[in-house]
Every structure is written in structure tokens, then in C-alpha cells.
Amino acid sequence: MEEYSREPCPWRIVDDCGGAFTMGAIGGGIFQSIKGFRNAPSGFNRRLIGSMAAVKQKSPMIAGSFAVWGGMFSTIDCTLVHFRKKEDPWNSIISAAATGGILAARNGLPAMAGSAVIGGVLLALIEGIGILFTRMQAEQFRPPQHFEDPSQLGPAQHNM
Amino acid sequence: MDNPPSFADSDSPLRSLITSKGNIGVKSPYLNFDSDYVSKPEYILPEGASKQRGRFELAFGQIGASVMIGAGVGGTAGIYNGLKQTTLAGQTGKLRRTQLLNHVMKYGSSNANTLGVLAVMYSSFGVLFSYARGTDDELNTIAAATATGFLYKSTSGLRKCGIGGALGLGLASIYCLATSGDRLRNMLE
Asked: Which stretches are transmembrane (chain A) (predicted)?
């Protein structure tokens, strides 16, 4: 169960925020280094410089928005756990939708609705895949069923 | 005394505790013993687990904490600056509210990002060093902080890079002295 490998609830927010920041920093770094390399003027040195500049400028911002998403998601998740008294996939889906909505709050209602739907669908997909994987792995551990053939034992002997 | 004393030894110091004076009788040796002979508590750890959490387990928490602290400090600074500037500019009502939000967002995110990136660098260096050396001690902390200072300022000239590294070294040394000064003193003696 993955729930036991994670931090207990209030600290999970900090942990998830950090994890999301790291993910954004590393992923954004890789992405921006490629993008900066391609968009720079020709010449290998200039390309390297452009790549570095893009990484320095953009990857902290990407990491920051990841961290905000992760922190908000975890906060709502923990709130839901507190009030619903259970941890299930619905928590994640609801909190993803709420996070998407809240973070787009300054862009108007339609944007909020769109972000909420995207967040909810994304997390529903992730949770669905997770459940699917768990089912598939559980299938492996099912004990093999032996069907014994009673005809091998010979005819039944009643007159002992 | 090489071997830990046992109750069977006639010259054991524990002997005197058991045979107490007069007619009180022999107390149970299980209840009546010198607690100094019990060494430090021993924990049975799961196989393959280390005694305390390593750097990788703590990394995400540390990074998240620094991001949150940065956001909090930056947000507070943003409120302060926003209030000052909107008062100076004479903005009121909706305009002022939006401008305040802009300030909070700007200061908060820039502070959070800076602190977070520093924490990511420090944590990754720390994890790297502790894996490479196989131990996790104060030297790792100091080396990771110094490397973070160098890397963070690596693009802004040799002088600034050196200053960054020195700053990391100094901060980490102060931290180590503050948290584990006793242990270091024991090591040096």
C-alpha cells in the first residue's frame, strides 16, 4: 500500500510541495535546455549560452508553478481526508479539480471551469491507471487452482 | 572488568544488591539491578533499513519547506511593498486590490523560486555526496552547501562564484557547529 510509505497528513503537504518543485525544476531544466538550444542563434557556443540562459530564467518559474499546484492539491486532499474520514481515489480527483479551479481564479469563470475539468480528468486517468496496475499485479499472486481428476482414482469401491 | 558482570559471579557488584541486609530476604534480581549496566536502548531495525532517515527521504520535505518559507516571506514583503506603493500612487478600491495581489504574487513567487532552487541544489548535492561516500555526516552538509554556493553563482563571474561558495561554506559550518558541536569536539579530542 503506498499510503504507508507517505508522510502523515499535515506534513504530506510540505513533502508534496517539495516533490512537485523538484519535478518541475528537473523537468523544466531539461525541457528549457533543449528549447533554448534550438531557439538560439547558430553556432554551438551561442546555442549553449542560449540553453543556459533559458534554463536559468524559466526553470525556476516552472518549478514554482509545479510547487504551487502540488501544495494546493495536497492541502485540499488532506482537508478532504479530514472531513470524509477516508482516503480513496475520489479525494484525488476532487482535489485536482478544485486545485485547477482555484489556481485559475484570476482568469475568470470559464477559465476556472476549464482548468477544473482538465485537472479532474487528468487525476481520474492517473488514479484509474493506478487501480488497473494494482489489479494486474494482484492477479499474479492468486494461488494456482488445481483441478484434480477423480477418474484417476479408479472406480469407487463401496463393498469394503 | 572485561566481561559484563553477571549474577553468578560471587564478586559481582550486583551481588550486593541482591543480598540485602537482614531478614528482608532476597529481592527478585529482575527488579533490583543497577540500571547503569543496561546499555543504550537497542532498536531492531527492518532488514536493509538504516538507523535514521537518509538525505533522500528528507530532501522533498526540506525543499517543500524552503519553497513555503520563501513564499511566506515574499508574500509578506509583497503586501508591505504593495500597500506602500498603492498608497503613494493614490490607488483605491478594485485597482488597489488587484495591484496588491500582483505584488504578493510577484514577490512571493520570486522568493519561493530562489529558495526552492537553492534547496534542490543543496539536497541533490547532499544525496550525491552521501551516496558517493557511503556515510552521512557533517562533512556532507558542508560540502553540499559549498557546492550549492558555487553552482548557484557559477554563471556570474569567478569572483561572485567564489563569494557564493564561501557563503555556503560559512553558513554550513555555523549550522554544523550549532547542531553537533559536542560530537565534533569529541571527534577532535
From this structure: 61-83, 112-133
DSSP conformation class of B53: -
pLDDT tens, residue by residue, A17-61: 999 999 999 999 999 988 888 888 888 888 888 888 888 888 999
Tell me the pLDDT tens digit for each residue of A79-102: 988 888 888 888 888 889 999 998
Contact residues on chain B for A67, CB-CB shorter than 8 A: 64, 67, 112, 116
Give the global pTM.
0.72
Query: How is residue B42 written as a grid cell?
Result: 537497542
| A134 alpha-carbon distance from chain centroid | 15
- Residue B28: CA count within 13 A, CB half-sphere: 2
- Greatest CA separation for chain A: 99
**Residue B1's pLDDT band (cuts 50, 70, 90):** very low
Q: What is the ipTM of this complex?
A: 0.72
Please answer whether residues A80 and A94 qualify as being in contact, where contact means their C-beta atoms are separated by less than 8 angstroms. yes
Instruction: Check A60 against B116: CB less than 8 A apart.
Output: yes
Residue B117: closest CA among chain A residues belongs to which residue?
Answer: A60
User: Count of CB atoms within 10 A of residue B97's CB?
Assistant: 13
Q: Are B138 and B121 in contact (CB under 8 A)?
A: no
- For an interface test with A, the pick among B103, B109, B113 (most A C-beta atoms closer than 10 Å) comes out as B113
Q: Mean pLDDT across the stretch B26-49?
A: 66
